[in-house]
Amino acid sequence: MRGHLTEKDDVFGFGIVALEILIGRSNSDNNLDTDKIYLLEWAWTLHENNRRLELVDPALTTFDETEASRIIGVALMCTQASPMLRPTMSCVVAMLTGDIEVGTVTEKSNSLTGWDFKDIIDSFLNEDSQASIKSKSRKHDDKTDQMTSPVNPIKPMLYEIIGKGT
User: Fold this and answer.
1) Euclidean distance between CA atoms 142 and 163, whole angstroms
2) CA-CA distance, 10 to 137, in Å (whole number)?
3) Four-residue CA torsion sign, 131, 150, 41, 109
């Protein structure tokens, strides 16, 4: 069914949160290298190349590799494309506690297959508009060079059209 939330959606969300905790960052971060911007995409890439322990937060100087690998495996199982392949939460708990073995991850999330990850603004603006916005919204800092959103979160988007409403 489409448009209906199920417990398998919660399982998917749990997988993302588990990765965020272990990796020590949010689901997406535009300040990172292109291949690391989207957490789940990066996790699957490392998993497919047998390098998944590289996901662990570098701030952790010591950690149990078996436990970290277990958490990554469970998180990836939770984010598989087919909800039917995702474990139930009771199985997730049993895998995390070591009561049962972590299953085999078989299918990458379909949000990662066939999609080109770009910010939503890219799909609405042509290249000239994007370059103009980027040059106007760039803020320089001694430490980083970050982009700010061209959208003003304080002023409603329809403000120019309808005014103050008086």
Assistant:
1) 38
2) 37
3) negative
Kindly report the average pLDDT of the chain as a whole number.
75
| CA proximity to 73, closest of 19, 27, 28 | 19
Q: Take residue 14 and report the two structure tokens written for it.
A: 């749990």
- Compute CA distances 115 → 13, 36, 41, 58, 110, whole Å: 20, 16, 11, 29, 8
**pLDDT tens track for 26-67:** 888 888 888 888 889 999 999 999 999 999 999 988 999 999
Beta bridge partners of 147: 138
The structure tokens listed for 128 are 């000239």
Contact 37, 28 (CB under 8 A): yes
Question: Which pairing describes strands 138-140 and 145-147: parallel, antiparallel, or unpaired?
Answer: antiparallel
DSSP letter for each residue of the chain: --S---HHHHHHHHHHHHHHHHHTS-SB-TTS-GGGSBHHHHHHHHHHTT-GGGGS-TT-SS--HHHHHHHHHHHHHHT-SSGGGSPPHHHHHHHHHTSS---------TTSSS-----HHHHHS-HHHHHHHHHHHEEE-SS-EEE--SS-SSS-TTHHHHTT--
Note the pTM of the prediction, 2 decimals: 0.62
Q: What is the end-to-end Cα distance of the chain in Å, rounded?
A: 45
